[in-house]
Amino acid sequence: MLLWLFRQLARLPLSWLHRVGAALGWLVYRCSPSYAGRLRENLYASGVCAGDEQCQDLLRAAIAETGKGVTELAAIWFGAEENVARLVVQCDRWDIVESARRRGGGIIFLTPHLGCFEISSLYGAQRMPLTVLYRPPKQSWIEPLMVAGRGRWQASIAPANLRGVRMLYKALARGEAIGLLPDQAPGVGEGVWADFFGRPAYTMTLVRRLQQASGAAVIMAFAERLPAGRGYRLHLEELPAGGLDEGALNRAVEAQVRRCPAQYLWGYNRYKTPAGAEAPPPSSEVRSQKADG
Questions:
Q1: Spatial distance between the Cα atoms of 108 and 91, rounded to a whole number of angstroms
Q2: Whole-prediction pTM value?
Q3: Among 90, 232, 239, 271, which is least packed, fewest CB within 10 Å?
Q4: In terms of C-beta density within 10 A (0-12 exposed, 13-18 middle, 19 or more buried), how is residue 76 classed?
Q5: How far is CA 175 from CA 32, 104, 169, 216, in A?
């Protein structure tokens, strides 16, 4: 029934889905004080805006963009393949992907919670085998939709457990591409504390370990949501392979977010402490103040 409903929604123009999504974003924001508070806190503390007026404008845009990220899934996951293939209307620097493929060693695509990260992976899967790491959602009814929507073209879905991590290593060993969310909060023992927008965030070590084991190229991918449902513009940037520790990883994500801060998922609980993990250290700002004092 749910699959049927999403397939019917996928027939709607993307502009309509985005208008509904903007309304949905405001509805959730108004109905969930905890979510709204986290969104405001993460946005204002990031420093991407200055002054009340600019921050308020950015807040309003971020609320609407978050809702669009939900309703557009119908078109991306369940739209006809020929329609989905046309959603990315511009791709910047695909040449760096082809260059990395010629070098061998595999490719690690990093897609932060920015813009439409779902279309980024499907764009790649249309052109090459791509193994994508995913974390099963808390609402179990969503998982079949997620697996069906993400496993299109040449995409393989790897669960965020030991079996899934092995799938990633094997794909890189074959010289293939993998994709993962670099700003997803990992479980205890799978990350270290590193500053993200000046605040300590538990950050996955998996990217560094995969790159060191394989020598793969690391490419940041960000699909910018264009106005009026016109589609998406895919931005690609290769990161330096050497020295890509967790701090450098977070700085690379920050740089992408600053390009289009309204489309970042500020409501995501990025700064949570995983169960069983040690409390985070003081932020860089606090440490600096202590050093100066």
A1: 18
A2: 0.89
A3: 90
A4: buried
A5: 45, 6, 10, 8
CB-based contacts of 34, cutoff 8 Å, min separation 6 = none
Within the chain, what is the greatest distance between any pair of CA atoms? 62
CB 59 within 8 A of CB 40: yes
232, 115 Cβ separation under 8 angstroms: yes
pLDDT per residue as tens digits for the range 102-151: 988 899 999 999 999 899 999 999 999 999 998 877 777 777 777 777 88
User: CB-hemisphere CA count at 13 Å for 183?
Assistant: 28
Determine the Cα–Cα distance for residues 88 and 197; give it in Å rounded to an integer. Answer: 29
Token digits of residue 181: 């969310």
- CB 109, CB 179: distance < 8 Å: yes
Residues 6+ apart with CB under 8 A from 169: 210, 213, 214
Q: What's the burial of 198, exposed, middle or buried (CB within 10 Å: 0-12/13-18/19+)?
A: middle
Which tens digit of pLDDT belongs to each residue from 144-203?
Answer: 777 777 888 998 888 888 898 999 999 999 999 999 999 998 888 889 999 999 999 999
Euclidean distance between CA atoms 139 and 162, whole angstroms: 21
Query: CB–CB of 60/101 below 8 Å?
Result: no
Q: Are 216 and 65 within 8 A, CB to CB?
A: no
Residue ranges of the domains in the chain? 88-292
